[in-house]
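Illustration: SsrA-binding protein.
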Amino acid sequence: MTYATNKRARFDYEILETVEAGLMLSGQEVKSIRNGGAKLLGSFVTFHNNAAFLLNCHISKYRYAGKLENYVPDRSRKLLLTQKQIAYLEGKSHEAGLTIIPLSIYTKGPYLKVEIGVARGKKKFDKREKIKKREVQRERLRYLKNG
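Result:
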């Protein structure tokens, strides 16, 4: 089941490849995500000391948790990847024009996973072209439906 998606990611970026990663969370954050309290808009992945971190991912405080002092919803969270994957993604992030962004948070068995993608930013004319193709496809379907 998918709990959060980054809807702007596929519009603003061309996704070249995707990788699945685990996410290091506290117990109340897991419950909050399962209740729909996660937002990926504007989040990205960085690398420090041979570790990957998810930044700007907003996970709201779990409503039924007790007093949580000093809880920061936008804190950086560690991604669980192999050293080989980290080295590969870090190399890709240093290439010109490429960035690493999260695409969705979902479950795989009892675990929460994050799908991250290696992406290249789209230009404005690319976005317009995509919108134009979508409109033409809608017109074509409307014409076939109405006969």
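Reading the tokens back as a structure: The chain has a mean pLDDT of 92.
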